[in-house]
Amino acid sequence: MIKEVLDTMIELASEGMTMLCVTHEMDFAQRVADRIVFMDGGQIVQQSDPAFFFDAPRKRTGNFLKQLLH
After folding, report:
1. pTM, two decimal places
2. How many whole angstroms separate alpha carbon 55 and alpha carbon 53?
3. Model pLDDT, residue 38
4. Which of 19, 24, 30, 53 is such that its CA lies 20 to 30 A from the CA of 66?
């Protein structure tokens, strides 16, 4: 079911729909996001375009990504 929901969201985004999405699906976020905002404890830790977010994450962001992606 997750794949179907993500595929629908990808289709809507490709049609120009603006969305705000909260997810731990980092592959999905990297593919479709224009901007990523990472929050921890109710505070914004990092916000950037996906390329910078994944290529040069701040320390807390990098620790989070390591837990999810490895």
Report:
1. 0.79
2. 6
3. 96
4. 19
